[in-house]
Amino acid sequence: MGAEIVIQTENLTKVYKRLFKAGKKALDNLTISVPKGAVYGFLGPNGAGKTTTIKILMDLIKSTGGTAYVLGKPSYDVEIKERIGFLPDSPAFSPQLTAYEFLNICGKLLKIPSAERGPRIEMVLETVKMAPHMREKIGSFSRGMLQRIGVAQAILNQPDLLILDEPLLGLDPYGRQEFKQIILTQQARGASVFFSSHILSDVEEICDHVAILNKGKLLCAGRLNKLLGASGFTAIIPPNNDEVLKELITMAAKTSRKEDGAWILTFPADDEIRGKVDAVVSKSSDKINVTAAYEKLEDFFFRTLKEDNKQ
Amino acid sequence: MNEIIAIAGSTWKNVLRLKVVYFLVFCVWVLVTSALNYDVLSLGLHKELLVDASLLLNTIAGVLVIISLTFEIPKELKEGVASTMLSKPLGRTHYLIGKLVGYVVVGVIVCSLIALGSFFIFKISFSEPIGMIMLQSQIMVILSLIPMAALAVLFSIALPEIVAPIVTVLVVWFAHSSAALFNIPVVYGGIIPDLDLFNFKADAVYNTAITWNYVILVALWGIAYALFATALASLIFSRKDIR
Question: What is the pLDDT of residues A230-240, one digit of tens each?
Answer without folding.
Answer: 667 888 888 88
